[in-house]
Amino acid sequence: QVQLVESGGDSVQSGGSLRLSCSVSGVDFEMYGMGWFRQAPGKEREFVARIRSTGDETTYSDSAKDRFTISRDNANKILYLQMNILKPEDTARYYCNAVDYHGSLGYRPRFANWGQGTQVTVSS
């Protein structure tokens, strides 16, 4: 059974940076495209970024583009999200999951199991 463990969240001021990590076990990590999602209070979970299984292709939401960088370490089964120039609207709980492309629906989570997420809070 897949296990996803996110970490690295913190409270920072606007303009700050954080690097999130997601440790994956129970599956062949290197076989899956992976992504980050986030959920703010009272809102639905939304797609943030994804990376191909080989690490050579990435996609970002409009809000993440030019500020966030997704990467992966297949040898150690870790997914990363480097977040720069953080804004108060980035405040959310961040989750990782494998992703599948669903055409007009975009990238959707693949695993039914979610980790506990990691909280990012950005103050102005």
Percent helix: under 10%
| E-strand count | 11
| Tally of helical runs | 0
Mind telling me the C-alpha Rg?
13 Å
State mean pLDDT (0 to 100 scale).
97
> Could you describe the largest sheet, including whether it forms a barrel?
7 strands, mixed
How would the global form be characterised?
globular
Poorly predicted runs are: none
Provide a brief overview of the structure.
The chain is an all-beta fold. The protein has strands spanning 3-7, 11-13, 18-25, 34-39, 46-51, 58-60, 68-73, 78-83, 92-101, 107-109, 118-123.
Describe, in plain words, how this protein is organized in 3D.
The chain has 124 residues and is mostly beta strands. It is 0% helix and 50% strand. It contains no helices and 11 strands. It has strands at 3-7, 11-13, 18-25, 34-39, 46-51, 58-60, 68-73, 78-83, 92-101, 107-109, 118-123. Strands 2, 4, 5, 6, 9, 10 and 11 form a 7-stranded mixed beta sheet that branches. Strands 1-3-8-7 form a 4-stranded antiparallel beta sheet, with no helix packed on it. The chain is globular and about 40 Å long.
Helix-strand blueprint:
Layout (H helix, E strand, L loop, with lengths): L2 E5 L3 E3 L4 E8 L8 E6 L6 E6 L6 E3 L7 E6 L4 E6 L8 E10 L5 E3 L8 E6 L1
Parallel strand pairs: 2-11
Antiparallel strand pairs: 1-3, 3-8, 4-5, 4-9, 5-6, 7-8, 9-10, 9-11
Defining key terms:
single chain, mainly beta, 11 strands, globular
